[in-house]
């Protein structure tokens, strides 16, 4: 994940719209490298970070009770399985602009 992604967390109290913002570091050549840290926010409210180990296997949530452990686990699972959309390989259809 290289760009922020919106995630809808379905709860008994209503839907929560969580922005997942990957923290990256610049590397030589103008590229960015993933750090394994993902900032979470809901609107203007900072919800803390989900931090993965080097292999993206283990994670921890640094928030202060804004999300329950099962909610943080759901978001961590989403991050772990996320694949960037393949914009270049996508075929245009009759509804596409351009």
If strands are numbered along the chain, what order do they take across the biggest sheet?
A: 1-2-3-4-5
- Count of β-strands: 5
Number of domains: 1
Ends distance: 26 Å
Structural class: mainly beta
The ordered H/E elements are EEEEEH
- Low-pLDDT segments: 93-98
Structure explained in plain terms:
- The protein is mostly beta strands.
- The chain has one domain.
- The protein contains 1 helix and 5 strands; from the N terminus they run E-E-E-E-E-H.
- It has one helix spanning 69-81, and strands spanning 5-11, 14-27, 31-42, 45-52, 59-61.
- A 5-stranded antiparallel sheet has the order 1-2-3-4-5, covered by helices on one side.
- Strand 2 (14-27) and strand 3 form a beta hairpin.
- The longest helix is centred in the last third of the chain and has 13 residues, at 69-81.
